[in-house]
Design brief:
- It holds the Pfam family F5_F8_type_C.
- This is F5/8 type C domain-containing protein.
- InterPro entries: FA58C (IPR000421), Galactose-bd-like_sf (IPR008979).
- It comes from Hucho hucho.
- Keywords: Signal.
- With 217 residues, this protein is an all-beta fold.
- It folds into 2 domains: 42 residues, no CATH class; 169 residues, Jelly Rolls.
- 0% of the residues lie in helices and 46% in strands.
- It has no helices and 14 strands.
- The strands form 3 sheets. Strands 3, 4, 5, 6, 7, 10, 11 and 12 form an 8-stranded antiparallel beta sheet that branches. The protein has a 4-stranded antiparallel beta sheet with strand order 13-2-1-14, with no helix packed on it. A two-stranded antiparallel sheet has the order 8-9.
- It is globular.
């Protein structure tokens, strides 16, 4: 929603301020080089760089990155850092080439056969070695890895917003649960790093009124 706040200042001039959401634009995953994509594993014909949103190989029915099935036959498991199995849980990793402010993820499934990731974890890093798992913060409990809801069909795009902005160069998406197989395509949302962004950008226009009111829309 947009909130307009009108307040009186000197000389009986009023300013109208509109609050507009910011830091929500594609981070350019589609234009990243193939070398920016890596993964825990992949099936033949479904490499990491096939994980770009809307990516389509006309020679295949199923689209997107897909890990080795041995990596996910036991999903869902517990939190990524708590995984104790002999097989590492699957992930798709992106190198954005420089730090970005990340505020959300767009995800898409395999395009056919009702294949998609229905929930996932997120991890972030600035050097590609030390990883931070995005956590759910609770006032009355210890933080725990947040499980994000993903897709509900194989073609439409699911929009996921983070509660808190994260600055990172490297991002991992770790499927938690899935339908009929893990096939994933994605885009990251956010804004450029190095700029002091607030959740809202305030725009003001002054008008020559002598009475001031507050409007909620």
């Amino acid at each position: 929603s947009v909130v307009f706040v009108v307040y009186q200042i000197y000389l009986q001039v009023c300013c109208v301020c509109a609050c507009i959401e910011e830091c929500w634009s594609p981070r350019g995953v589609q234009s990243l080089p193939d070398s920016s994509f890596s993964a825990s594993s992949h099936q033949w014909g479904h490499p990491p760089w096939a994980g770009r949103l809307y990516a389509r190989d006309p020679h295949k029915d199923l689209q997107g990155w897909s890990p080795d099935t041995e990596q996910y036959r036991n999903l869902p498991t517990g939190a990524p850092e708590g995984h104790s199995g002999a097989v590492q849980p699957p992930y798709l990793q992106l190198d954005l080439l420089r730090p970005h402010n990340i505020t959300g993820v767009l995800t898409q499934g395999g395009g056919v056969f009702d294949t998609y990731v229905s929930s996932f974890y997120l991890q972030f890093s600035n050097d590609g070695r030390q990883w931070y798992t995005y956590q759910q913060l609770n006032a009355d409990a210890r933080p725990r890895a947040k499980v994000f809801l993903g897709n509900r069909d194989d073609r439409s795009v699911s929009y996921t917003r983070l509660d808190r902005m994260v600055s990172a160069q490297f991002v991992r998406v770790l499927p938690h649960d899935f339908q009929n197989g893990i096939y994933l395509r994605l885009e990251l949302m956010g804004c450029e790093n190095g700029v002091c962004w607030t959740k809202y950008l305030q725009l003001c226009v002054c008008i020559g009124l002598k009475s001031c009111y507050i409007f909620y829309i």
